[in-house]
Write a structure and sequence with these properties.
This protein is of the alpha+beta class and 128 residues long. The chain has two helices and eight strands; from the N terminus they run ββββαββββα. It comes from Candidatus Dechloromonas phosphorivorans.
């Protein structure tokens, strides 16, 4: 799911603050601890080779996040591409690869156990 900031409903607006909320934005039930993540990524980064050896050669961890700046494109198992840009909220379901189109900074929230497995796998790939 991709949604721009302006498409998120304003729930409250007062001087100095605008509160927006998108309900039903994924389900974290049963995932246990969630990790908050802040990634700074350079244009051209592609996770495809880093995810080789994981199930389906893709990240199988869901992520909920926000793009602070830049642009990223995900590809799912069916080959469907979705691009997120600065000020977009996003949900990436399990089964994806990521390519950084423009230097980017993102904040993500992920199931800690599942994403730690993926991060450790990437570290091992880079260290090999």
């Amino acid at each position: 799911m991709r949604i721009t900031k302006d498409e998120v409903d304003i729930k409250m607006q007062i001087p100095g603050a605008v509160l927006r909320q998108r309900t039903d934005f994924g389900d974290a039930t049963g995932f246990g601890k969630i990790s908050g993540e802040y990634f700074s990524l350079s244009a051209g980064v592609d996770t495809t080779p880093l995810f080789q050896g994981l199930e389906g050669d893709m990240c199988q961890c869901p992520h909920w996040g926000f793009v602070l700046r830049g642009q990223l494109t995900t590809t799912d198992a069916d080959g469907v591409h979705e691009t997120v840009n600065a000020n977009d909220l996003f949900y990436w379901p399990p089964g994806h690869n990521v390519k950084v189109d423009e230097d980017a900074e993102i904040v993500m929230f992920s199931p800690q156990h599942e994403h730690s497995h993926v991060i450790n796998h990437m570290i091992a790939k880079v260290s090999a």
